[in-house]
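Look over this one:
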Amino acid sequence: MNYPSSVKIVEVGPRDGLQNEKLCLTVQEKLWLIDALSQCGLRHIEAGSFVSPSKVPQMDNTDEVFLKLKHFEKPVYSALVPNTSGMKRAIACQVNEVAVIVSASEAFSKNNLNCSIAQSVERITQIASLATQFDIPLRGYVSCAVDCPYEGAVSPATVLVLCESLLAAGCKEISLGDTLGTATAIKTSRLLSQVLSRISADKLALHMHNTYGQALANVLVGLQHGIATFDSSVAGLGGCPFAKGATGNVATEDLVYLLNDMGIETGVNLSTLTLVGDKISKLLQRSNESKVGKAMIAKQRSH
């Protein structure tokens, strides 16, 4: 099996992770988290989203976070933007990459994004126009790429069409999201076989939630299909406010542990990362969802 020699990890804890936590972090707490993740060697960090605070109050201080991030050493600090209003805020904050999202399920799109899939694609086209004007790279998400909480199983053919629409709009990379965390190795293989029939692996990423404990198995399937970009969340933070019961992304610690053992380069210091995962879990008053993180912290304390 020819696995990638290196993998790009997109750390989504400060956005996808925090958006579903009960406690809202202050600007200084978020800046600590983002900087600490950067110090671990993570070079692609999704630091917030320019969404309505009434819908996602955990992201209320995103503008201030990004304005202060300008003074940090610069990895890629990206932000999710849902519409042109959010994009204009991102431009004002000098964000150096933006992410847009479309759902592969019509019902989820209407409940989550408050528009149809077609309207969502049109919004992305408008965002892309602004991104081109200000020379800001664009990343795309396809949510509910496997299952939808309202419609059930999602057709891989539908996901492929949406991926092609996002690429045509100007997205340089498409992250396929198992929003509910219900994907299995078989489902992920079926999805990738369909999408890779017309799109090259270097344009794709996987965004696997771990609700059913299958995220690492799905990552391995991705690696076997040539995928070399994976989204993850420190300490397994998060979930989706619009998908009841869904837990956080695959924990970054667990992902790095797997890749290290396979001899795949990530540039991430796992020992330091486990300390960050432990601290942010305590700060949020929640359990650490990283199996590797908990095991390594327990081992350190026993010595």
Notes: The mean pLDDT is 94. The domain at 8-302 is CATH 3.20.20.70 (TIM Barrel). The CA atoms of residues 25 and 271 lie 24 Å apart.
